[in-house]
Amino acid sequence: MARSPETKSSEMRQTLSRLAQVHSVPDEDITIPTPSLAERDRRYRATRRAMAKQGIDVLVLPANHSRWDQMMADSRYLSAIGGYGTETLTIFPADGAVTVGIFNRCGWWQKVQNWVTDVRDCRNRWADLVVERLGEIGFPARGRIGISGMEGLVRAPDGLVPYTMIKRVKAAYPEAHIVDATGMMQDLRAVKSAEEIRLMTRSVTIIETMLAAMTAETAAGVSEKHLYATLTNTLLEAGGELPSLLIMGSGPNLNTGQFVPTMRKLKTGDVVHVEAEAHYCGYSGQIVQSVSVGKPPGAYADAHEISEACFDALLPRMKTGTPIGDLMDFYERMVQKEGKGRLAHAHPMMHARGLGDERPAQFGDVGLEQYRRIELKSGMVFVLKPRVRNLQARRTGQTGDTVAVTPKGGKRLGSRDMGLWIV
Question: Is the pLDDT of residue 65 over 70?
Answer without folding.
Answer: yes
